[in-house]
Amino acid sequence: MEELVALSKRRGFVFQSADIYGGLQGIYDYGPLGVELKNNLKAAWWRAMVYERDDIEGLDAAIITNQKILRYSGHEATFSDPLVDCRNCKSRWRADHLKEAKCPGCGSKDLTEPRPFNLMFKTGIGPVDDGSSFAYLRPETAQAIFTNFKNVVDSTSRRPPFGIAQIGKAFRNEITPRNFVFRVREFEQMELEFFVPPGTDEEWHRTWVEARLDWWVQQGVPRDRLELYYVPEKDLSHYSKATVDVMYRFPHGLEELEGIANRTDFDLGSHSKNQDELSLRAKVMANVDSNTRLAIQDIESKKWVVPYVIEPSAGVDRGVLAVMNEAYRVEKLENGTERIVMGFKPHLAPIKVAVLPLKRNHEGIMNKAVAIKQMLQKLGLGRILFEDTGNIGKGYRRHDEVGTPLCVTVDFDTIEKDDTVTVRDRDSMQQERIAVSGLSAYVTNRIAG
Ligand code: GAP
Q1: What is the pLDDT of residues 33-71, one digit of tens each?
Q2: Sheet holding 351-357, edge to edge
Q3: Which CATH number is 2-79+119-323 given?
Q4: Which atom of ligand 1 is nearest to the CA of 177?
Q5: Residue whose CA is at the smallest distance from ligand 1 atom 5
Q6: Ligand 1 in contact with 306 (CB < 6 A)?
Q7: Which CATH number describes the domain made up of 351-448?
Q8: Distance from the CA of 304 to the center of ligand 1, in angstroms?
Q9: Which atom number of ligand 1 is nearest to the Cα of residue 318?
Q10: Which of 52-56, 293-297, 332-336 has the highest mean pLDDT?
Q11: Is the pTM of this model over 0.90?
Q12: Among positive and negative, which fits the CA dihedral 433, 435, 440, 441?
């Protein structure tokens, strides 16, 4: 973990937020390479969920959330962690994270009894600051998918089985944020709510677990580094009938990367006016504020059916950490030196191709390198970097360390002899001469193929 944290800062993947003011605990900023990696991971998820399937729609809902949504979702009452105070040093800890009944800070055994601590952030709405008009920062992106269910159904004519996908920020006032971007207070989720006819939910749950495992493998996380954890009934969230967690071997241990829950009709039901069709689970709180029926009417029988929901919910930041951890390797070279390589899958690499002119002060080489950069940029594969530091060897090392799959060097032969460039492969370190006329096709094939 220390090596990843150091590399993240050194190369511009992740920075401690507000570090010039001493930082803000559990909050991180993504740097020039981090933002590319994160965007690429999110784009891969969106591609797999929305573009490559024909049964999922997208959504981008607001972060600031009406209080009532989180009342009826059950979050006001139950979205809490057990908190203990150390009476000696006044620090606070999550009771379920303590290995022994003593303070990890000062070692004192003088701890308070655990009490529930609600994790939701509140924010004031409007100009009157008397505490009466507040909203929440959403603790999961899911709720706005449920509250927009009717809007999406009415505007797209979808019928179950179908899903609504969303990527966005979520906020939790974690008692003890830790392990770099693993447990933070501001993070991003990639969530799918997949609505299915009741009775088909268990089958769909199994289907989604398999689909999500496959997707993580495609992102470069080997199957043997992932485990499935069937959450015991006593530990299930208030909305869940069954949850399977995809666990990954993070540097600090085996922990949850993604949760895949069977939320039944709990959420659509609890945001709806009371209706007979609901299962008992969804009738826990009679909704006196909603006049809406979040259900589907059967065209022939005219009966209303409240779909069940299968929810694969992945953390973007945990995904970035997992992908970086898998990509990181240190190789011993024949000449006795070492190189650090981030072996990202090409579709995730922050920089796809670096274009390096052999000589900085040579106008012909510089112009040609700029033209090649612009040509490759137009392919729409992601970031192509023009880098005129002039030291090719150092450039290759730097790009190994940030995971750039290909480096293209423009030299004298390019402009004086045969209009070819040297293309150097990150993993094999092999170099080959490629004609500039065929370079776009070559690069497209290597990066997107
Ligand atoms: N809508 C369901 C839901 O939010 P969750 O298991 O609480 O379920 C889903 O969260 C995913 O969000 C987790 O598997 C994890 O990847 C990510 N996540 C949750 N809390 C997080 C935190 N404090 N920091 C970073 N990621 C977090």
Answers
A1: 999 999 999 999 999 999 999 999 999 999 999 999 999
A2: 383-386, 351-357, 406-410, 420-425, 431-435
A3: 3.30.930.10
A4: 23
A5: 259
A6: no
A7: 3.40.50.800
A8: 32
A9: 16
A10: 52-56
A11: yes
A12: negative
